[in-house]
Design a protein that fits this description.
This protein has 336 residues and is an alpha+beta fold. It has 10 helices and 10 strands.
Protein backbone atom coordinates (compact mmCIF):
# COMPACT_ATOMS: atom_id res chain seq x y z
CA UNK A 1 0.00 0.00 0.00
CA UNK A 2 1.18 3.49 -0.84
CA UNK A 3 -0.53 6.78 -0.20
CA UNK A 4 -0.52 10.50 0.38
CA UNK A 5 -2.83 12.73 2.38
CA UNK A 6 -5.39 15.06 0.80
CA UNK A 7 -6.85 18.29 2.16
CA UNK A 8 -10.42 16.96 2.14
CA UNK A 9 -12.36 13.97 3.56
CA UNK A 10 -12.31 11.88 0.40
CA UNK A 11 -10.60 8.49 0.07
CA UNK A 12 -9.52 7.55 -3.45
CA UNK A 13 -8.17 3.99 -3.53
CA UNK A 14 -6.83 2.27 -6.63
CA UNK A 15 -6.34 -1.49 -6.84
CA UNK A 16 -3.66 -2.51 -9.32
CA UNK A 17 -4.88 -6.12 -9.04
CA UNK A 18 -8.39 -5.19 -10.14
CA UNK A 19 -7.35 -2.11 -12.16
CA UNK A 20 -10.16 -0.17 -10.51
CA UNK A 21 -10.41 3.18 -8.73
CA UNK A 22 -12.97 3.60 -5.93
CA UNK A 23 -13.79 6.85 -4.13
CA UNK A 24 -15.80 7.46 -0.97
CA UNK A 25 -16.16 10.01 1.79
CA UNK A 26 -14.91 9.45 5.33
CA UNK A 27 -18.29 10.84 6.41
CA UNK A 28 -20.14 8.04 4.60
CA UNK A 29 -18.20 4.78 4.76
CA UNK A 30 -20.73 2.37 3.32
CA UNK A 31 -20.51 -1.23 2.13
CA UNK A 32 -19.69 -1.53 -1.59
CA UNK A 33 -21.54 -4.42 -3.22
CA UNK A 34 -19.86 -3.85 -6.60
CA UNK A 35 -16.17 -3.38 -5.82
CA UNK A 36 -16.18 -5.73 -2.86
CA UNK A 37 -12.38 -5.65 -2.51
CA UNK A 38 -12.71 -2.05 -1.30
CA UNK A 39 -14.70 -3.17 1.76
CA UNK A 40 -11.49 -4.28 3.47
CA UNK A 41 -10.23 -0.70 3.15
CA UNK A 42 -13.58 0.78 4.14
CA UNK A 43 -13.90 -1.52 7.14
CA UNK A 44 -10.47 -0.66 8.53
CA UNK A 45 -11.13 3.08 8.19
CA UNK A 46 -14.61 2.70 9.70
CA UNK A 47 -13.27 1.01 12.83
CA UNK A 48 -10.25 3.31 13.12
CA UNK A 49 -12.73 6.18 13.12
CA UNK A 50 -14.89 4.37 15.69
CA UNK A 51 -11.76 3.93 17.86
CA UNK A 52 -11.37 7.71 17.97
CA UNK A 53 -8.69 8.18 15.31
CA UNK A 54 -9.05 11.54 13.55
CA UNK A 55 -8.80 10.50 9.91
CA UNK A 56 -7.96 12.58 6.87
CA UNK A 57 -8.62 12.06 3.18
CA UNK A 58 -5.98 10.26 1.16
CA UNK A 59 -5.05 8.89 -2.23
CA UNK A 60 -4.14 5.21 -1.82
CA UNK A 61 -2.75 2.62 -4.22
CA UNK A 62 -2.87 -1.10 -3.49
CA UNK A 63 -1.12 -4.05 -5.07
CA UNK A 64 -0.85 -7.54 -3.60
CA UNK A 65 1.01 -10.70 -4.59
CA UNK A 66 -0.83 -12.96 -2.13
CA UNK A 67 -3.10 -15.18 -4.28
CA UNK A 68 -6.72 -14.12 -3.82
CA UNK A 69 -9.17 -16.73 -2.54
CA UNK A 70 -6.46 -19.29 -1.88
CA UNK A 71 -6.63 -19.35 1.92
CA UNK A 72 -3.43 -17.32 2.37
CA UNK A 73 -5.08 -14.33 4.05
CA UNK A 74 -4.88 -11.76 1.27
CA UNK A 75 -7.67 -9.90 3.06
CA UNK A 76 -5.68 -9.60 6.29
CA UNK A 77 -2.69 -8.40 4.25
CA UNK A 78 -4.79 -5.57 2.79
CA UNK A 79 -6.25 -4.67 6.18
CA UNK A 80 -2.88 -4.40 7.89
CA UNK A 81 -1.22 -2.62 4.97
CA UNK A 82 -3.97 -0.01 4.91
CA UNK A 83 -4.10 0.40 8.69
CA UNK A 84 -0.33 0.73 8.99
CA UNK A 85 -0.23 3.13 6.03
CA UNK A 86 -2.73 5.48 7.69
CA UNK A 87 -0.93 5.15 11.01
CA UNK A 88 2.22 6.42 9.32
CA UNK A 89 0.50 9.08 7.20
CA UNK A 90 -1.43 10.59 10.10
CA UNK A 91 0.88 9.67 12.98
CA UNK A 92 -1.62 8.25 15.48
CA UNK A 93 -0.47 5.86 18.20
CA UNK A 94 -1.75 2.28 18.08
CA UNK A 95 -0.08 -0.96 19.11
CA UNK A 96 0.35 -3.84 16.68
CA UNK A 97 -2.15 -6.05 18.52
CA UNK A 98 -4.74 -3.25 18.58
CA UNK A 99 -4.36 -2.65 14.85
CA UNK A 100 -4.78 -6.39 14.28
CA UNK A 101 -8.03 -6.24 16.24
CA UNK A 102 -9.19 -3.36 14.02
CA UNK A 103 -8.54 -5.57 11.00
CA UNK A 104 -10.46 -8.45 12.54
CA UNK A 105 -13.42 -6.16 13.24
CA UNK A 106 -13.33 -4.97 9.64
CA UNK A 107 -13.47 -8.54 8.40
CA UNK A 108 -16.07 -9.78 10.89
CA UNK A 109 -18.42 -6.82 11.17
CA UNK A 110 -17.98 -4.82 7.95
CA UNK A 111 -17.14 -7.43 5.32
CA UNK A 112 -19.19 -10.05 7.16
CA UNK A 113 -16.74 -12.95 7.30
CA UNK A 114 -16.19 -14.70 10.63
CA UNK A 115 -12.47 -15.13 11.25
CA UNK A 116 -10.15 -15.39 14.20
CA UNK A 117 -7.29 -13.01 14.94
CA UNK A 118 -4.30 -15.01 13.69
CA UNK A 119 -4.20 -13.73 10.10
CA UNK A 120 -4.26 -10.04 10.98
CA UNK A 121 -1.87 -10.57 13.86
CA UNK A 122 0.86 -12.20 11.79
CA UNK A 123 0.35 -9.76 8.90
CA UNK A 124 1.12 -6.92 11.29
CA UNK A 125 3.63 -8.46 13.72
CA UNK A 126 5.57 -11.13 11.82
CA UNK A 127 9.35 -10.96 12.02
CA UNK A 128 11.84 -12.03 9.37
CA UNK A 129 13.07 -15.64 9.77
CA UNK A 130 10.64 -16.26 12.63
CA UNK A 131 7.32 -17.97 13.16
CA UNK A 132 4.79 -16.21 15.37
CA UNK A 133 3.40 -17.97 18.45
CA UNK A 134 0.13 -16.35 19.56
CA UNK A 135 -2.08 -16.88 22.57
CA UNK A 136 -5.47 -15.98 21.10
CA UNK A 137 -7.02 -15.43 24.54
CA UNK A 138 -4.48 -13.00 26.00
CA UNK A 139 -2.94 -11.82 22.69
CA UNK A 140 0.48 -12.42 24.19
CA UNK A 141 2.86 -13.40 21.42
CA UNK A 142 6.41 -14.54 20.78
CA UNK A 143 8.50 -14.58 17.63
CA UNK A 144 10.08 -18.02 17.43
CA UNK A 145 13.16 -18.68 15.23
CA UNK A 146 12.39 -20.23 11.84
CA UNK A 147 15.63 -20.33 9.90
CA UNK A 148 14.89 -20.42 6.18
CA UNK A 149 18.50 -20.21 5.02
CA UNK A 150 18.69 -23.97 4.43
CA UNK A 151 14.95 -24.67 4.29
CA UNK A 152 12.32 -23.00 2.16
CA UNK A 153 8.61 -22.66 2.78
CA UNK A 154 6.80 -23.78 -0.36
CA UNK A 155 3.13 -22.95 -0.74
CA UNK A 156 1.27 -25.22 -3.16
CA UNK A 157 -1.98 -23.83 -4.56
CA UNK A 158 -4.46 -26.58 -5.45
CA UNK A 159 -6.33 -24.02 -7.64
CA UNK A 160 -9.49 -25.19 -5.87
CA UNK A 161 -11.23 -22.10 -4.57
CA UNK A 162 -12.81 -22.51 -1.19
CA UNK A 163 -16.58 -22.71 -1.30
CA UNK A 164 -17.75 -23.95 2.10
CA UNK A 165 -15.46 -22.09 4.46
CA UNK A 166 -17.92 -19.53 5.84
CA UNK A 167 -20.75 -21.86 6.83
CA UNK A 168 -18.45 -24.69 7.88
CA UNK A 169 -16.34 -22.37 10.05
CA UNK A 170 -19.49 -21.38 11.93
CA UNK A 171 -20.52 -25.02 12.29
CA UNK A 172 -17.12 -26.11 13.61
CA UNK A 173 -17.03 -23.21 16.03
CA UNK A 174 -20.47 -24.05 17.45
CA UNK A 175 -19.48 -27.72 17.78
CA UNK A 176 -16.35 -26.76 19.73
CA UNK A 177 -18.36 -24.43 21.96
CA UNK A 178 -20.80 -27.28 22.62
CA UNK A 179 -17.91 -29.58 23.49
CA UNK A 180 -16.55 -27.03 25.97
CA UNK A 181 -20.01 -26.56 27.50
CA UNK A 182 -20.49 -30.30 27.99
CA UNK A 183 -16.99 -30.90 29.34
CA UNK A 184 -17.40 -28.04 31.82
CA UNK A 185 -19.99 -30.20 33.60
CA UNK A 186 -17.24 -32.65 34.59
CA UNK A 187 -14.05 -30.57 34.46
CA UNK A 188 -13.71 -27.36 36.53
CA UNK A 189 -12.83 -23.95 35.07
CA UNK A 190 -13.45 -24.81 31.42
CA UNK A 191 -14.30 -21.73 29.36
CA UNK A 192 -13.00 -23.09 26.06
CA UNK A 193 -11.37 -26.28 24.80
CA UNK A 194 -7.93 -24.84 25.53
CA UNK A 195 -8.78 -25.32 29.21
CA UNK A 196 -9.16 -29.08 28.76
CA UNK A 197 -6.02 -31.20 29.16
CA UNK A 198 -5.57 -34.32 27.02
CA UNK A 199 -5.78 -36.41 30.21
CA UNK A 200 -9.11 -34.88 31.25
CA UNK A 201 -10.46 -35.24 27.72
CA UNK A 202 -9.56 -38.93 27.58
CA UNK A 203 -11.38 -39.46 30.87
CA UNK A 204 -14.63 -37.90 29.68
CA UNK A 205 -14.65 -38.15 25.87
CA UNK A 206 -17.05 -41.10 25.71
CA UNK A 207 -19.76 -38.87 27.22
CA UNK A 208 -19.70 -36.58 24.16
CA UNK A 209 -21.70 -37.01 20.94
CA UNK A 210 -19.45 -38.51 18.27
CA UNK A 211 -19.09 -35.45 16.01
CA UNK A 212 -18.58 -33.11 18.95
CA UNK A 213 -15.98 -35.51 20.37
CA UNK A 214 -14.05 -35.54 17.10
CA UNK A 215 -13.97 -31.75 16.89
CA UNK A 216 -12.84 -31.47 20.50
CA UNK A 217 -10.17 -34.12 20.08
CA UNK A 218 -8.67 -32.23 17.13
CA UNK A 219 -8.56 -28.90 18.97
CA UNK A 220 -7.23 -30.24 22.26
CA UNK A 221 -4.42 -32.23 20.68
CA UNK A 222 -3.71 -29.48 18.13
CA UNK A 223 -3.05 -27.14 21.04
CA UNK A 224 -0.53 -29.65 22.36
CA UNK A 225 1.11 -29.85 18.93
CA UNK A 226 1.41 -26.07 18.79
CA UNK A 227 3.15 -25.92 22.17
CA UNK A 228 5.48 -28.76 21.18
CA UNK A 229 6.19 -27.07 17.84
CA UNK A 230 7.28 -23.88 19.58
CA UNK A 231 9.83 -25.86 21.59
CA UNK A 232 11.06 -27.76 18.52
CA UNK A 233 11.57 -24.55 16.53
CA UNK A 234 13.52 -23.02 19.39
CA UNK A 235 15.70 -26.13 19.42
CA UNK A 236 16.09 -26.06 15.62
CA UNK A 237 14.64 -29.56 15.27
CA UNK A 238 12.96 -29.14 11.88
CA UNK A 239 12.54 -32.86 11.20
CA UNK A 240 10.33 -33.39 14.26
CA UNK A 241 8.56 -30.10 13.57
CA UNK A 242 7.70 -31.48 10.12
CA UNK A 243 6.23 -34.61 11.66
CA UNK A 244 3.96 -32.47 13.83
CA UNK A 245 2.87 -30.53 10.74
CA UNK A 246 1.88 -33.82 9.13
CA UNK A 247 0.02 -34.93 12.25
CA UNK A 248 -1.78 -31.59 12.31
CA UNK A 249 -3.04 -32.06 8.76
CA UNK A 250 -4.11 -35.65 9.37
CA UNK A 251 -6.10 -34.56 12.41
CA UNK A 252 -7.74 -31.70 10.52
CA UNK A 253 -8.73 -34.20 7.82
CA UNK A 254 -9.95 -37.04 10.02
CA UNK A 255 -11.30 -35.30 13.12
CA UNK A 256 -12.09 -31.73 12.06
CA UNK A 257 -13.11 -32.88 8.57
CA UNK A 258 -12.12 -29.78 6.60
CA UNK A 259 -10.15 -31.37 3.76
CA UNK A 260 -11.14 -32.17 0.17
CA UNK A 261 -9.81 -34.39 -2.65
CA UNK A 262 -7.64 -31.62 -4.07
CA UNK A 263 -5.95 -30.94 -0.74
CA UNK A 264 -5.38 -34.64 -0.15
CA UNK A 265 -3.82 -35.08 -3.57
CA UNK A 266 -1.51 -32.13 -2.97
CA UNK A 267 -0.51 -33.32 0.49
CA UNK A 268 0.26 -36.79 -0.86
CA UNK A 269 2.51 -35.60 -3.68
CA UNK A 270 4.19 -32.90 -1.58
CA UNK A 271 5.06 -35.29 1.24
CA UNK A 272 6.62 -37.75 -1.21
CA UNK A 273 8.53 -35.11 -3.22
CA UNK A 274 12.34 -34.76 -2.92
CA UNK A 275 13.55 -32.75 0.07
CA UNK A 276 10.13 -32.47 1.71
CA UNK A 277 9.79 -32.50 5.50
CA UNK A 278 6.00 -32.17 5.55
CA UNK A 279 2.77 -31.32 3.79
CA UNK A 280 -0.16 -29.65 5.50
CA UNK A 281 -3.24 -27.70 4.46
CA UNK A 282 -2.94 -23.96 5.00
CA UNK A 283 -5.88 -21.91 6.23
CA UNK A 284 -9.39 -23.14 6.86
CA UNK A 285 -9.45 -26.05 4.42
CA UNK A 286 -11.96 -27.05 1.71
CA UNK A 287 -9.47 -26.01 -0.98
CA UNK A 288 -6.82 -23.35 -1.21
CA UNK A 289 -3.21 -24.21 -0.46
CA UNK A 290 -0.89 -26.57 1.33
CA UNK A 291 2.45 -25.66 2.87
CA UNK A 292 5.67 -27.68 2.94
CA UNK A 293 9.13 -27.23 4.39
CA UNK A 294 11.71 -28.24 1.78
CA UNK A 295 15.47 -28.53 1.98
CA UNK A 296 16.94 -25.77 -0.19
CA UNK A 297 19.05 -28.11 -2.35
CA UNK A 298 15.88 -29.92 -3.48
CA UNK A 299 13.60 -26.95 -4.19
CA UNK A 300 13.67 -27.25 -7.99
CA UNK A 301 13.09 -31.02 -7.89
CA UNK A 302 10.29 -30.56 -5.38
CA UNK A 303 8.52 -28.00 -7.56
CA UNK A 304 8.78 -30.13 -10.71
CA UNK A 305 7.65 -33.31 -8.92
CA UNK A 306 4.68 -31.69 -7.22
CA UNK A 307 3.47 -29.91 -10.35
CA UNK A 308 3.55 -33.06 -12.47
CA UNK A 309 2.24 -35.33 -9.72
CA UNK A 310 -0.71 -33.09 -8.88
CA UNK A 311 -1.61 -32.60 -12.54
CA UNK A 312 -1.64 -36.38 -13.01
CA UNK A 313 -3.99 -36.83 -10.05
CA UNK A 314 -6.36 -33.89 -10.51
CA UNK A 315 -5.89 -32.72 -14.10
CA UNK A 316 -4.98 -29.17 -13.11
CA UNK A 317 -1.58 -27.48 -13.10
CA UNK A 318 -0.99 -26.02 -9.62
CA UNK A 319 0.81 -22.80 -8.74
CA UNK A 320 3.76 -23.10 -6.34
CA UNK A 321 5.40 -20.29 -4.40
CA UNK A 322 8.86 -20.55 -2.83
CA UNK A 323 8.83 -18.38 0.27
CA UNK A 324 10.79 -17.33 3.31
CA UNK A 325 9.50 -15.96 6.62
CA UNK A 326 9.29 -12.18 6.17
CA UNK A 327 8.46 -9.11 8.25
CA UNK A 328 4.88 -8.02 8.73
CA UNK A 329 3.60 -4.57 7.77
CA UNK A 330 6.49 -2.11 7.73
CA UNK A 331 7.58 1.11 6.06
CA UNK A 332 9.38 0.81 2.73
CA UNK A 333 11.20 3.96 1.72
CA UNK A 334 11.21 4.79 -1.98
CA UNK A 335 14.52 5.68 -3.60
CA UNK A 336 12.78 7.89 -6.13
Amino acid sequence: AAGRLRDDDKIAVYSANYETLVEFSLNAIDYDSVNTWSNYVRGVLHFLKEAGVKLQGADVALHGNVPIGSGLSSSAAIEMAVGFLFQNLIGFEMSGPDLALIGQKAENKFVGVNTGIMDQFVSRLAERDHALFLDCRTLEYENVPLDTSSLKIIVCDTMKRRGLVGSEYDTRRSQCEEAARLLSQWIPNVRALRDVSPEAFEEHKTKLPEVVRKRAEHVIYENERVLASRDLLKAGNMAKFGLLMNASHDSARDLYEVSCPELEAMVEVSREAPGSLCGRMAGAGFGGCTVSLVREAYVEQFVETVKSGYEQKIGVVPALYVCTAADGASVVESNK
